[in-house]
Design brief:
With 388 residues, this protein is α+β, with helices and mostly antiparallel strands. The protein has a domain of 138 residues: Up-down Bundle (Butyryl-CoA Dehydrogenase, subunit A, domain 3). The chain contains ten helices and seven strands. It has a four-stranded antiparallel β-sheet with strand order 2-3-7-6, with no helix packed on it. It has a three-stranded mixed β-sheet with strand order 1-4-5. A hairpin with a 2-residue loop joins strand 2 and strand 3. The chain is globular.
């Protein structure tokens, strides 16, 4: 495993650093003060398009193989972006989480239709992936949203919750089951376009942190989509095809979430150090000792994220490492923000310092894309040789 960071990645990280300082953090602080997601027409999103955000990796006729080191490259950018504001990162326009599934499993027609508009978007555009349900939050295999064939259409019924950006997305990749009695074996993914009859009841949830982006619940009531909206088409192999695709997406995404948490932990630690230096607290040996300990934990968490992403690039299994990265990164970020609060003391209680915001933001990192508890279950089952 090579720990050398390529010059291309270093240059990209520096660009993210400048953009984060100038645009992302101010936008995140604004959303936090307002207590609501940035609106679709917010100037930040138009600036982000001009900056080159919101694009897809897909190009017509291009090879499906990704660029060498793509996952590690993405990890470094994710850490730096989240350092400035993770909520704004998620709010950014673009094909988002479902892009990887469409690239891996979508037909050429589906890529053209659903990713094509993100090549050179004429306006801020979004897409999202909908797995989580009110009664199947951590157990992805227990989803109850159903899909059945009716003539030349699939009919979807169910409810989803905590889906990032659902109400503003051009389309939603919805995970549903063809037969609830078969569990994960019958799961498939369906493109549901915004405005489709039966797709509705959008509700943006109130959150204590990461307020820059929307977490949305919605329902599907006799929602009809064309047969060709089944991801990969009906010719794809049966038997956990949809579930395995979703899990591969998560196994590639969880180290990125872990890296984001590392970035947030870095931000909290940097703010704590700055405060300690300004107030003279840095002269206390106990404060310096805790800062050093926290720095060590952050670096350790980063190394696990790096290992998990490197395995993705090597096309090797990374189930254990992905769960480790997600669980440890989230834990460390919360510890760093908690340490920051302790160092700030009464100042943190005023609600005007960045660390107070980071303390609320980091809590979500233990929840999104599989809770810390679920990651520990996955790791334990791996260690003793039980099926995943």
């Amino acid at each position: 495993m090579d720990f050398l960071i390529p010059q291309e990645t270093l240059k990209a990280v520096e660009e993210v650093r400048k953009w984060g300082r100038d645009a992302m953090r101010p936008a995140g602080l604004e959303a936090d003060r307002l207590g609501s997601p940035l609106p679709v027409d917010h100037p930040y999103f138009h600036r982000s398009l001009e900056h080159g955000e919101g694009r897809t990796k897909w190009r017509p006729g291009a090879s499906a193989a990704g660029r060498p080191g793509a996952a590690v490259h993405a990890m470094w950018l994710a850490e730096e972006g989240a350092y400035w504001d993770r909520g704004v990162m998620v709010a950014n326009p673009g094909p988002g989480l479902p892009e990887a599934s469409v690239l891996a499993q979508g037909t050429e027609e589906q890529k053209e239709k659903y990713l094509g508009p993100f090549i050179e978007p004429d306006r801020p555009r979004w897409a999202c992936f909908a797995m989580t349900e009110p009664s199947a939050g951590s157990d992805a295999a227990a989803i109850k949203t159903t899909a059945h064939k009716d003539g030349h259409a699939w009919v979807l019924n169910g409810a989803k919750c905590f889906i990032g950006g659902a109400s503003r997305s051009d389309w939603i990749l919805v995970q549903a089951t063809l037969d609830a009695s078969q569990g994960r074996n019958a799961q498939r993914s369906f493109f549901v376009e915004q405005g489709t009859p039966g797709l509705g009841d959008f509700k943006i949830e109130k959150k204590m942190g990461l307020k820059a982006y929307e977490s949305t619940s919605f329902t599907l009531q006799s929602c009809r989509v064309p047969l060709e909206n089944l991801l990969g088409g009906e010719s794809r192999p049966k038997g956990q095809a949809g579930f395995k695709t979703a899990m591969r997406t998560f196994n590639a995404g969880r180290p990125i979430i872990g890296a984001m948490a590392v970035g947030m932990g870095r931000a909290a630690l940097d703010e704590a150090i700055h405060f300690a230096q300004e107030t003279g607290l840095i002269k206390r040996e106990r404060i310096r000792d805790r800062i050093e300990c926290m720095s060590r934990k952050i670096r350790s968490a980063r190394l696990i994220c790096l290992r998990a992403c490197w395995l993705v690039d090597q096309q090797r299994p990374n189930v254990m490492e992905a769960s480790m990265a997600k669980a440890l990164g989230a834990q460390v970020s919360q510890q760093a923000a908690g340490l920051g609060l302790e160092i700030l003391g009464n100042v943190a209680g005023t609600g005007t310092h960045l660390i107070e915001k980071l303390y609320r933001d980091t809590k979500a990192m233990d929840i999104v894309e599989g809770t810390g508890q679920i990651q520990r279950v996955i790791m334990a089952r791996q260690l003793v040789g039980l099926p995943r």
